[in-house]
Model the fold of this input.
Amino acid sequence: MRLVHHERDAIVLRTTPVHLGLGSRARPIEGFAWDPEVLGAYSAATAADGAEGRLVTIHDGDGPGDHWERHPSGDELIICLSGSVTVIRDVEGVTERVPLGPGEATVNPAGAWHAVDMDGAASILTVTPGLGTDHRPRTATGPAESIGTPGDHVP
Done:
């Protein structure tokens, strides 16, 4: 995993996310993967950006999400690119369901547990604050009912 300083070619956000950092920097992340080792390296490489750092990614899927997550350091923007999705979130103990179609977006407030269900084949773009992110397996209807404790702090 390495942050690229001056990428001149097209970036495929599905495989190469972009880190938005302090000083309005946008740096592609080569070799990114959703595994603990790479996430740890990413966190270390972007630690100086603190709560202002953001990860921009595109996710493709089909079906319900497999985890709950929350981002205590800031709001997360979710944009539906294709298909339809439903964002489920717990805001101060109240469950909200936000359906999104292509071109529609929602903001998950800082600290709100949320999950994304893709209603058939769909794609979303996310702009996520990584600092302090928690994950829980989606084993129940709400994050408070999940078994175990929050996961590792990863973006």
